[in-house]
Design a protein that fits this description.
heterodimer, A: about 250 residues, mainly alpha, B: about 280 residues, alpha/beta, Rossmann fold, six-stranded mixed beta sheet, three-stranded antiparallel beta sheet
């Protein structure tokens, strides 16, 4: 199994990705944490004053949504170029190419964990009761990791053949941002569209983050089953597409 | 050109016969390290390279032609390398040597045919793959070890040996971008050679460093050979092939035109080159 055999390479590539991201500086690290907070402030100003959603603790509601979404957005946007960007590891030597995608996703995963850990003191500060349900967080985040990895396999392998995919994906991500309950409560979605709306697994994941972190609710078995199925399907689809397209990577790069 | 092909066929059968004969005599049935069966590889060179969705859309609007030239880099190549054997691959430029080596390394996939490899393979397709100029020598050693699939423990166990062999112990904490090209190559070779592979794929990289270091590399390769490792050696240096290799194949235009004892195949190559060249 390549994950075990090449664990050292995965570790090194993940760390070097993180180093590049934080540019080995304290400020770079601070910025990456400030970014979601500032974004939350802007969106809070706009959506609480203009649209007047009467959601309890709307600021935290927003922040959890933003931090959850950022893992998907940053994870896919960085790993889309994981293959094309590491040319010499593809054309000059054999390593299982999934490693390049995995380590890129993992570095975003670590960033995301850091962002969530900044969230916790804020939750306490705003007087949220943290219950044992917080313990579900690692499970949900791990399932989300599989989902993002599967999606990244698809994107990174297609990007080798279609070099404008990152532009297209950027637009799709922006659409996704507004098609998921990040800046508004689900209650504003008209009932007749709700069935379609809930097909989006990211919606379910973000709602579950809020349940366990903000509302002290235990996630339902059905919801967990749903995202496990979505993540599993994405992983299978990603792996099989990647396996097929991988054969010509070295020629196409 | 016609003559080369006719000779090619004659020689090919001769070569195969010899191989079969060898087995029948049964000197000793050696295990195979590499088996290549009917491998073909064709590259497609499109007349108009479409690399984006946008290109494809424009292409469709214009009437959507996907014409391309095909280039057969390897044509029905079959051979096998025994365990512990040093095996040469020779031929003129563009004959498919590098494509063959890349297929053995697992970087390219054949369009048809099979490749079976038994053991861990170390491709020296290019020295210093994955080396990063902003990391120190030591960090690069760790990175390269990881690329070769070593664990952290194994890498730490070898690092002193690597630094010593490369004669760069003093510079272990220097960033690679400050290395001279000679030092770079020394570090790369030393790291690659210490990763303890079963099969080495060597592509023209032995001519590295100064003369003293070259000699050291030659000795190291010889040592590895005596240790019973398999080496596939691609080179234009016919003298070295003659010295190092037991058997050898001669490729031309993607076909094997001779296979057999290194001496005979090298002679054959020189005859063919004389006639056509």
């Amino acid at each position: 199994m390549w994950i075990i055999e090449y664990r050292e390479l995965i570790r090194i590539l993940t760390i070097s990705d993180l180093k590049v991201k934080y540019q080995s500086s304290v400020l770079g690290f601070a910025w990456s944490l400030l970014n979601p907070l500032l974004m939350m402030l802007v969106l809070y100003a706009v959506f609480s004053n203009v649209f007047r959603f009467d959601e309890d603790s709307f600021a935290l509601y927003l922040l959890i949504g933003i931090v959850g979404w950022r893992f998907l957005a940053n994870g896919t946007m960085t790993s889309i170029s994981a293959i094309v960007g590491k040319q010499s590891l593809v054309t000059k030597v054999y390593v299982p190419r999934q490693i390049l995608v995995l380590s890129s996703v993992l570095s975003s995963f670590v960033s995301s964990l850091l962002e969530f850990s900044v969230l916790v003191p804020l939750l306490i500060l705003f007087g949220v009761d943290l219950s044992f349900n917080v313990l579900f967080f690692p499970l949900i985040h791990a399932i989300f990791l599989v989902l993002v990895y599967g999606l990244s396999l698809i994107l990174a392998s297609l990007y080798v053949y279609y070099r404008d995919l990152n532009q297209i994906w950027d637009v799709l991500l922006q659409a996704g941002f507004f098609l998921s309950p990040i800046v508004y409560p689900i209650s504003i979605v008209p009932e007749k569209y709700l069935g379609y709306y809930m097909i989006n697994p990211v919606t379910v994941v973000i709602e579950m983050y809020r349940e366990v972190l903000l509302y002290a609710k235990t996630p339902s078995v059905i919801d967990i089953g749903l995202i496990v199925a979505a993540a599993g399907l994405m992983f299978l689809a990603g792996s099989s597409l990647f396996g097929r397209l991988e054969r010509r990577f070295a020629e196409e790069i | 050109m016609g003559s080369i092909k006719a000779m090619a066929l004659a020689n090919r059968t001769k070569g195969l016969d010899r191989e079969r004969g060898g087995e029948r005599e049964g000197e000793k049935v050696r295990e195979r390290a590499i088996v290549v069966e009917n491998v073909s590889k064709r590259f497609r060179i499109p007349h108009e390279k479409k690399v984006t969705f946008f290109d494809h859309l424009i292409g469709l609007a214009k009437g959507g032609s996907y014409s391309y030239e095909e280039f057969l880099a390897l044509n029905d190549v079959s051979f096998s390398v025994n365990k512990g054997e040093t095996f040469g691959v020779i031929g003129p430029n563009g004959c498919g040597k590098s494509t063959l080596l890349k297929i053995l390394a697992g970087v390219l996939y054949p369009d048809s045919g099979h490749v079976k490899i038994d053991g861990k393979i170390a491709p020296f397709l290019e020295l210093g793959v994955g080396f990063q100029p902003d990391l120190t020598a030591l960090e690069n050693i760790r990175l390269y070890g990881a690329v070769m699939g070593l664990t952290r423990k194994q890498i730490e166990g070898k690092r002193e040996e690597i630094l010593e062999f490369s004669e760069l112990k003093r510079f272990e904490n220097m960033k690679l971008k400050n290395f001279s090209s000679g030092m770079y190559v020394k570090l790369a070779f030393s790291t690659a050679i210490q990763t303890d592979p079963d099969i080495l794929l060597v592509d023209e990289v032995l001519s590295v460093g100064d003369e003293a270091f070259q000699k050291k590399c030659g000795e190291k390769i010889e040592e590895i050979r005596r240790a019973g490792k398999t080496i596939v050696f691609v080179s234009h240096a016919l003298g070295t092939v003659r010295d190092l290799c037991e058997r050898c194949i001669l490729l031309d235009e993607g076909r094997i035109i001779a296979l057999g004892e290194a001496d005979e195949v090298v002679d054959e190559y020189m005859r063919v080159m004389d006639r056509t060249g």
